[in-house]
Amino acid sequence: MLATAIFAGGCFWCMVKPFDEQPGIKSVVAGYTGGTTVNPTYEQVASHTTGHTEAVKITFDPNVISYAQLVEIYWHQTDPTDAAGQFQDRGDSYRPVIFVNGPEQRQVAESSRDALIASGRFNDPIVTQIEDVKPFYPAEAVHQDFYRQNPFRFQIEEMGGRAQFIKQRWQ
Q: Measured between alpha carbons, how far is 110 from 106 in angstroms, rounded to an integer?
């Protein structure tokens, strides 16, 4: 039996690879969620008028990798103190959100967030939102597996502050 998890952590191009490389992951789809426009395009979401945020939908085997492990991977890809976007990507379409699918995922996400707060790793408040799952719309094909299809451009995106932040805060 497979399960799904949805995370928003800035540019979806940069959020696919960390999950895609894990055992038990069946697929990682870049897309849009959290807004009101049905089946939005990249251009619509980038206009900051849809309410959507770029996100990844992960289909996984919970017998191989747990939702709690996915949440931990998520934290290590984001700046949980920045509600206005992530790294060089600014605006509501890049806000950090854990979209939970039911009370079990909510409990795991909230406990993980509370443990992160208690750890003292960050001086600023943890502002990542935990919200109920909303309809998820896959992004256009050009945005799928971006790190594989466009490795040079992906490397440039990673140099926008994410890789340095991860190295300083998590390694």
A: 6
Token match 């540019």: residue? 11
Residue 22 inside a domain? The answer is: yes
Q: Which of 11, 25, 109, 139 is catalytic?
A: 11
Q: Which domain holds residue 11?
A: 3-164
In a domain, 171, yes or no: no
Would 116 be classed as within a structural domain? yes
**What one-character DSSP code corresponds to residue 85?**
E
CB 127 within 8 A of CB 81: yes
**143: Cβ contacts below 8 Å, ≥ 6 apart:** 12, 13, 30, 42
Could you confirm whether 11 is annotated as catalytic? yes
Q: Whole-prediction pTM value?
A: 0.93
Q: What are the pLDDT digits (tens) for 1-40?
A: 999 999 999 889 889 999 998 999 999 999 999 999 999 9
What is the tally of structural domains in the chain? Answer: 1
